[in-house]
Amino acid sequence: MRESRSGRRLWPALAAPGTLWLLALFAVPFYAIAAVAFGYPDPVFGSPVPEWDPRYWDFTLFTEVIQRSLTGDLRPVFVRTLLFVGLALLLCFLIGYPVAYYLARYAGRRRGLLLALILAPWWINYITRMLAWLSLLQDDGYVNDVLMALRIVPDPVRWLSGNPYTVVLALVYGYVPFFIVPLYATLDRIDSQLLDASRDLGVGGYRTFLHVTLPLSRSGLMTAAVVTALPMFGDYFTNTLVSGSPTTTMIGNQIEFYLLGGSRKEIGASLVLLLSAMLMALMAYYLISSQRANREAS
Amino acid sequence: MTRRPVVLAALTWLYVVWSLVPVLIAIQFSFNDGRSRSTWQGFSFRWYWGDSGSVASDPSLRLALSNTLQLALLTTLVATPLGVALALGLTRWRGRTSRAANGLMLLPLATPEIVMGSALYLVFTNLYTLIPLGRTAQLLGHVTFSVSYVVIIVRSRLHSIGAEYEAAARDLGATPLQALRTVLLPLLTPAVLAGALIVFASSMDDFVISAFLSTDASSVTVPIKLYSAVRTAPSPALNALATLLLLGSALALVLAWAVLRRRRGVVRGTDRAGGSALREMASIDV
Amino acid sequence: MAFHPRETRGASPTRRQFLQLGALAAVAGTGVLAGCGRERPRPTPTGEQIVLSRPDRPTRLPLHSDVPAIASGLTPEKGGTLKVFNYAEYLSPDVIKAFGDKNGVKVEITTFTTQDEAIAKLRTSGTDFDLYFPTPDILAKIVAGKLLQPLNHSYLPNLTNAWPQLQDPFYDQGSQYTAPYTAYTTGIGYRADRVKSVPTNGYDLLYDGAYKGKVYILDDYREALTMAMLRAGQTDVNTEDPAVIKAAGESLVSLVNAVNVKVGITAYQLVPEGQADVHHCWSGDIINAQYYLPEGTGPEVLGFWYPANRKGAVGTDTMAIPRSAQKPVLAHMFINHVLDNDVALENFSFTGYQPALSIVTPEKVVADEYVAENITSAIVTPEHYTDGLQELQLSPAGEALWTDEWAKFKAGQ
After folding, report:
1. C15, A287: Cβ pair inside 8 Å?
2. Domain covering C81-183+314-387: architecture
C-alpha cells in the first residue's frame, strides 16, 4: 500500500498524545521513586526529600533494604509473597483453564451468556467481592454453617485469623477472572481443524490436549500469567481484609506500612524499586520465553 | 461426532456459581435487620435509609458514590480517545521509536497498582506540584493505567479488520485522514465501546491509586470508603453502599447495551454491535 | 492460518527493545554508581532545634512572626464548608450538626488513620483544613514546620472547663497552639465471662495460651512495643536504647506462636461480639463497646485492666488550627463548642473517649449511666494523667529504631 507523506505523518501524530501522556505520568513517576529512594531526609519532619540529580544519589539506605531483603527481616516477606503468588497462580491455572477451554470450544449457544457471567466480576468492585467472602467466612458465617452441617469439621474454622490458605484463596478469587479472559481469547483462536486433524490421525482426546492444544495456547497462558501474577505481587489489601495477622504479610503490606503509615518513607520507596526490578526480571523472562515459543511453534 | 463434555460444563458452571454467589449473599446482608454481616436477622431497609448509620443519612457515603461515578465518567471520556489514537498510531507506525512506545504502553499492564500509586503520589507531591492532589490527580492517574486497556482491545480488532477497507477508500481518492474517519473508525466502534466499558469498570473499581492520591472528603471514592470502613467500623451499611455501586455500574452497562442495540452494523461485515463488544472485551491480545 | 498474524510479529521487537532498555538502564546505573560518593552540600537547617518535650521538661513552643494569630473580635465567616481533619468516628455527628446549624455552615470531616498520614496531607499544598486533631508527640515538629497557627484565647472562654494541668500543658505551655480534647489510657480489654482470672500483671493475659486465636494487640508501633516494655517492667517508654527496643520486639514476636496474635483497632466491636477474648485497647474502646453488645448481652461481660499503680500508658488528644485554615474564626468557635460541658458529654456518649474536662468525674459518668459499674477502670482521672507514662516524640534515630522493630514484627517469620 502506497503511503503518501501525509499518511506517514498521520500515524505518529496519532500516537503522540498517548505516548507523551505515558511518558509524563508513568515513566517520570518511576524516576521520582528513584529520586526519593536515593534522596536525603528533611531536617524538620524527617520525611524524605527527593534528589533529582543522579550524581548526588545516596545508596546507603537502598543497600540496607537490599540486605534486609536478602538476609534480614524482609526476606520472609519476599519468600512468602513468592509462595502465595505461585500457589495462587497454580490454582488460577487449574480453575481457569478448564473454564476458558469450555467457553472457547463447547459453549455454543450459551456462549454469550457465559461470557457475560464470567466477565461480570470485572464490573463488581474488588473490595465488594472480598466483602462477600468476609461475610461468609466469619465464625458464624455460612461457610462454617455448611461445613458443620455436613460434619466435615466439629468446630467453626477460624478462616479470618491469619490463615494463609484464606489469603491464597482470596487472591485466586480476586484475580482468576483476569486469568481466564486472555486464555479464552487464545483458545478461541485455535483452529478447530487442527484438533480435528489430530483426532483423525488417531490421537486420543487427552493426548491431543497435551500435545496440540496446550502448546498452541502457550502464549495465551503466558499472557494470562503475566496479567495476573504481576499485579498480585503488589497486592496488599487482600491480605489486610482477610487476615489481621503478621504471619501472612506480603511485600505490598510492608510497602504500604512504610509509605503511608510509617515514618520511613524512603524505605517504602526503596522497596517499590526493588519490587519493580524483580517484576521487570520476570517480565523479561516472559518475553524471552514467549519469543522462543513462537519460534518453535512456527 | 461431538462429545458432550459433562465434566467441563459442570466445572464451568460451578465456577460461575462460586464466582457470583458470594456477591449475591453480600447484597442479601445489606438488607439485614441487625448489625451482623454474617448472621441473618431479618429483612429491613435500615441500612439504606432510616437508621442513623445508613447510606442515606451519611453524607460522606453519598459524596463517595458521586465522586466514584464522576471520576469513572471523566476517565472514560479522556482515556478512550487517547487510547484509540494510540492504538491506531502504534499499529501503523513503523520504526524503532514506535516499538519503544509500544513497550511503554505495555508496562502499566504488568505494574502492580501499589507501584503505580506510590510513583504517582511521589511525583505529584515532589515534581508536578502545580497539580494538587485530589480529583485532578486521581483523574490523571486513572487515565494513565486505563489507556493500555483501550489500546490492546482496539489493536486486536484493527488486526482482524486488516487494511483492505482503507486501501479501497484511498484508491477512491480519500486522504488517509478521511479514510480513517469515514471507514476505519466506524468499523472499530465495537472495540472502542468495549474499551470504554472496561475503562469505566476499572476506574470504578480502582482503590489503590485513588487512595494514594486523595486529599479530603471531596476525593474519597467508594472503594476507599469501603476499605477504611471494613477495617474500622464494619456494618451492613457497607454492603448497602457496595450494592448501590453495583446498581450504578449495572445501570451504566444497561445504558451502554441500549445504545449499542440501536447501532446496526453499517458496513457489511460488522457483527451486531452488542455481542461483538462483549467478544472484544474478551479478546485481550498483548 | 492457525495463528493470529500478531503473535509472531509482536514478540520479537518487544523483546529486542526490552533488552535495549535493559542495557541502557545498566549503563546508566554504572554511570551513576561511578559518580556516587559525591555529597551535595546540604542546606544547614535554619534556626530552631526541635526540643523533645517531656512532663518534667515543659516546652514553650516557638511563635513565628510570619504565622500570626487572628485578631480578636472578628465576626465569624458565613456560609461555605468548615473542613475538619480527624480520626474516623471521633466526633459525634449530632455535635457537628448542632454547630453547623447554629452557625449556618456545612461541616465536612476528612479522616486519617495515623498522624504521619495527616502531616503528609497537611504539607500538601492545596489542602486547607480548618481544624485538626494532633497528638502531643508531633507538636514540636509541626510547629517548627509552620503547619499550625497560634490560638487566640479570646474566642475560647470554655478553655477553663478543661483539667487545670491541661490548660497549661507541658507540651504546649500557655496553650499557644492547642486545646485539650480527650484523655485515654491503654490497657487490656477482655471478656469478663471468658477470662477466668486476671493476673496482677494484666499484660500476661495477652500471652496466655488459653485464649489462643482470640488475642489482639493494637496496630500501632508505639503502643504495641510500649506494652511489651511495660510488661517487662520497663518504665521509660520513650527509650532509644536499641537493646530495650529489640527485647520488646522479640516479646511481640513470641506472641505469634504463643497465641496466634492478630493486630487491630476495633476492640469496641470485637470484644462485645465475642471475636476477641483479650484485646490490647484504649479506654475509650471498652466504653464504646457497650453500644456494640449484641441483643441480650449486658455490659457485665466487658472488663478493662489497667495497672493498679497507674504506671501504664496514658495520653491525650488535642485540637489545633492549621495555618492554611480558610475559616479560622469559625474554627476557634468550634473548639469552644466542643469544650462546652454539655456538648462534651454528648460527644462522649458517641465516641466513648473521655473529654479532658473537670466535670467528667468517675462518679458523674457512672451516675449518669455513661459507663457501667464494672468498667470504671476505664475512666481517666487527672491522677492517671500525672502518674501515667506518655508516649512522646523521639529523635529521628529513635523513630527509626521503633519503626523498624515493628516492621520486623509485622513481617512475620
Report:
1. yes
2. 3-Layer(aba) Sandwich (3.40)
